Amino acid sequence: MLNYEYEDMKHLLYWPESVRLKATRKEGHGTMHYTMPGIKEEFVRSPIDHRFQDTFNKFFPRFDLDLNQRGLVWFIKKGLFEAALNGTSDILTWLGQGKDRAGRTSEITQIGMEVWTLRFQLLLNLRMHAQLLAELAAFEELDAPDLFYQYKTSDKTGSLVPFAMRIIHAEALRFSPFPWNSVLRIETLLSQVEQIVNIFRMQGAPLNHIEDWEKRLDSVKYLYVRVLHDLGEYKISMTMLGKVRSETKDPQEKNILTRALIRMAMQAGDEKAMNFYVEKASNQTAGSNELLLHKAMKSIFLGSNGHAQEYISRISPKECQGAQYINTKGIIQLYTGKAVEAVDTVSQIKPITPGPTTANLKTIAELCYSTAAKDELLI
């Protein structure tokens, strides 16, 4: 949602004033431009399948926010992220923040910040990390005075920075030459969100407002776990995610976190931890198809592919069509020498978007497909 009413989102836009904003207010400024973003590097449009070019032209003939937003939603739902990225390029160009505009003054608005956030999400998903870091640099530490509503008006307070941008900003340095700096940013963000939750509690804010910020706090914790895990800090990430799991009250979320802990333990070869969380998962999902999936995953880890095949075969595809079931079935087929069947199984995940699923599909396809057939599969 690129456009929304301020009053509807006011509690989610809250953010403590930065040192830079406080210093600037004392000086009586309100017209300086501190944040000057633009599309970086030589702009080359991402290729779009010719079948969708006319559709793109219908959604992005000019700056029309309602029409453009419908176009972004349409392409994202279809998994055509390159086309959506081109759409953000057009919108930002119309807003005066297109190619070669970095470092030049332009108006910072709520709509523009939402478009930049969506663009960064697309760049992250497409693994265009160099461009992500280059374009994100203009926003510095997200604390510039002109990133606050109250810098230019007395009618509104809070931050123009969407929370999703703060998440990406914290993670982005993981793809830089100094990946551990990402951990420092995440720790800072974690502290800031904890502070806001405490402020809302002390002020007696409505319960749903507090819960909204608690969900944001959880999302930062999950980010922290993921980044630590990717940096090789297995024990710390397991401990932290285990703590989050024990604190959550939502049974469904607890189940999801349990599965994540099982996968992390399997990846690290930690049989003790895997058995511990498989038992927890069994208690949570007794008598369900999910229990059979957990047993199948455990059997794969132990090298007992026959038992894994038995467990997965007891689940009717009509009863379980989720990505977890499909991935588990594909892994079992691969480990039992049925690589072609594994490719067909994983291909059932629709849409197949860039990321882990694509990487897994490419790896399996290399075992049984020619280069041309593999490329055709991944188009």
Automatic annotation (TrEMBL):
<dbReference type="GO" id="GO:0005794">
    <property type="term" value="C:Golgi apparatus"/>
</dbReference>
<dbReference type="GO" id="GO:0030008">
    <property type="term" value="C:TRAPP complex"/>
</dbReference>
<protein>
    <submittedName>
        <fullName>Uncharacterized protein</fullName>
    </submittedName>
</protein>
